[in-house]
Amino acid sequence: MRLVDLRKIAVRRQFRIRFPISNGLECVINQYGVAQVPALHGIPDFNLERELETASRFVIEPGTVDAKNPVPVRYLTREELEAMADASPVAAAADHEEE
Asked: Any idea what DSSP says for residue 72?
């Protein structure tokens, strides 16, 4: 699983995806597909793609908050998130493209 896969999930499902990185910070991919490290205040000394390779726990939050129908925060493992990426409707449609 790569960063681009998480960005696609976040945009298509309007989620925010969070995962910890090795220096105690946290990466947040918002519902627009933008990866951010909110606590970062300078030039990073890490690569988010490499940090993602070591991440094993992810937090999925709704991108927009609806007071009438709140969506609970979900905690997923890497395997569960990879399964979610594989089950994406766009990935399934790519397998059945017309010639």
From this structure: P
Estimate the share of the chain in helix, then strand, then coil, as percent rounded to the nearest 5: 35, 20, 45
43-52 pLDDT, tens digit per residue, is 888 899 999 9
pTM for the model stands at 0.77
Name beta bridge partners: 75. 59
pLDDT of residue 39: 86
Beta-bridge partner residues of 28: 18, 36
Number of domains within the chain: 1
The dihedral through the CA atoms of 97, 80, 32, 45 has a sign that is negative
What is the phi/psi pair of residue 44, to 5°?
Answer: -75, 150
Look up the domain containing 35 and give its range: 3-95
Tokens representing 22?
């090795």
